[in-house]
Amino acid sequence: MSYETVRVETLGSVGLVTLDRPAARNALSRQLIAELNAALDGFEADPAIGAIVLTGSDKAFAAGADIAEMKGLGLVDVFENDFVAAWERLAAVRKPVVAAVAGYALGGGCELALMCDLVIAAETARFGQPELSLALIPGAGATQRLAKSVGKAKTMDMVLTGRLIDAAEAERIGLVSRVVPAAALRDTALAVGAKIAALSRPAALMAKEAVNRAFESGLADGIRYERRLFQALFATRDKEEGLAAFLEKRPPRFENR
Length: 257
Ligand code: HXC
Known about the structure:
By secondary structure, the protein is an alpha/beta fold. The protein is 43% helix and 16% strand. The protein has 2 domains: 6-197, Alpha-Beta Complex (2-enoyl-CoA Hydratase, Chain A, domain 1); 200-248, Orthogonal Bundle (Lyase 2-enoyl-coa Hydratase, Chain  A, domain 2).
């Protein structure tokens, strides 16, 4: 596949997708989402890839859904095409995904970041849900994922007032995992990706699945799910290797089996 709106690179065991529509501040057009999904499909299917990093430009991670594309669409258009359903591909990725955010992450751009597992923000990052200023509401999950991540007070503030929050506030409220200087963003995200990719693959995938279960179920169900996955890992060779390596004071050699 040839890409026009994203750049796709493989850096060792890390797959890197860079959103690349600079003239539109990486607005998330139908084409961009299709290309992002194709890149994600490729990395998911590639056994050499253990983690994915998603990033944008210095100015914008993504300025949201493409406003020009949405203009003129009616209810029947978006209902028949199930507009926004394709965006959920990112949330369904099983390998860990790190978002590296610099500049604006607005509307659907903030929602894409919320679908990632870790969000590493540059000091320049600005997060916001300005959809109400367009007489829309967030449509790619923010009313749910943002509320579950940062609680009602901050979600209502962001959604109802459209206020942009800076990286420091985003970290304080739990929207981002870490804040780093802009110049260190890419290397930090790639290093985090490489660290995750070096883990035992089944353990990393099960950890992600178990944490995500917390967002989908009640506590008792989530705890039971976590316990079953934990127990399942006792069937892997990597678990024996990981424990043995610790006891023998040496690095582990995982086979992802
Ligand atoms: C289409 C966009 C765009 C967008 C920017 N552009 N955001 N085009 N869709 N979301 C275009 C502008 O029209 C302009 O094109 C060029 O990018 C540069 O934008 P400027 O505004 O001149 O840049 P700047 O002053 O740096 O401001 C950056 C910005 C601002 C703060 C990000 O562009 C902005 O507020 N954008 C809209 C943000 C927004 O409302 N997002 C929510 C969208 S709704 P020209 O041709 O004039 O150079 C949404 C719903 C999600 O996301 C629901 C799920 C689908």
